[in-house]
Amino acid sequence: MVTAGLQHWWVFVLALAALVAAFLLGYLRRRPALGEARWVANAGYLTALPSFTRALGQYRRGLWGAVVLTLLAGTAAGVLAARPVQRESTNPELATRDIVLCLDVSGSMVGYDAEIVDTFLDLVEEFDGERIALSIWNQTSRTVFPLTDDYDLVREELAHAQDVLDFDVATLDDNTYDPEDLDSLIAFIAGTDGGSETDTSLIGDGLASCGLLFDEADAERSRTVILASDNQVIGEPVFSLEDSADFIDRRDINLVAIYGGEESLASEAARTEYETIVTSHGGLFFEAADPEAVPAILESVEQEQAVDLDVEPEVTITDAPAWPLAVLGGALLVLGGLLWRLRL
């Protein structure tokens, strides 16, 4: 709801009172200006001439017009001094769906991550009010941004992630890579390397860390993790994928999995394990290139109960000086022309 008003209404009251007082004082103290009058003999007939009567009437109307314009300009100036504003009161209904985008940035996934982030961007374009977070992980996890409904920030960060992850890992073997692109990639995935030379793509640890990003544990909220990985685990994670899936399930977090990876016997076994664990915990499983992934994920998220939070109304105050400024300018312009016409 939008309403108009004065931020400092008392300033307008004072200005209006001063203006009225000045007008009344001037009216009550008016007197004929006879001090410098010169009397002319045999000129009494002049006041009876139609031309004189007409000119005198125009003069008096001009004076009253000048008074009205002065009052109008003074009133407009008083409104401006009182700061005219528009107040827009909104009652935001924050959707209680929280979604954590959980991205594997290990070496085997870099070639597929740009496509997966593109899927994330498609999802974000369809969301409305959901809070979104992005976590990237390899040996350890890094939160790119926590849960937020600032969609401009979300799009900006995801677009940046898509740009730096669009890196051809094969160019590292023949030294044909662009050093700036490599530096950007390293800077983005900083914090996901735990220092181990043997561990990589610890999917269980990555999923568990994503599950810990949800705040407001006591609130009635829908929570979803969208996990993207190839499940090519090398090393010893603290949590297995099965353990993390159990943890996610116990916290009533919905699990959606996206698989991206090369085709081989080893990857097929990892894919099968990935799908089996996710679906056995009531989750959804999609291939990264599946055109039905986005609409199916959206349908799954939208089916979750969304309860509106009780939030305080937001009031936005915007200065609105246009109309009093236009009135003041117009009144002064007409008044100037009128006074020139009256030769005052």
Automatic annotation (TrEMBL):
<dbReference type="InterPro" id="IPR002035">
    <property type="entry name" value="VWF_A"/>
</dbReference>
<feature type="domain" description="VWFA">
    <location>
        <begin position="98"/>
        <end position="301"/>
    </location>
</feature>
<feature type="transmembrane region" description="Helical">
    <location>
        <begin position="322"/>
        <end position="342"/>
    </location>
</feature>
<dbReference type="InterPro" id="IPR036465">
    <property type="entry name" value="vWFA_dom_sf"/>
</dbReference>
<feature type="transmembrane region" description="Helical">
    <location>
        <begin position="63"/>
        <end position="82"/>
    </location>
</feature>
<keyword id="KW-0812">Transmembrane</keyword>
<keyword id="KW-0472">Membrane</keyword>
<protein>
    <submittedName>
        <fullName>Ca-activated chloride channel family protein</fullName>
    </submittedName>
</protein>
<feature type="transmembrane region" description="Helical">
    <location>
        <begin position="6"/>
        <end position="28"/>
    </location>
</feature>
<keyword id="KW-1133">Transmembrane helix</keyword>
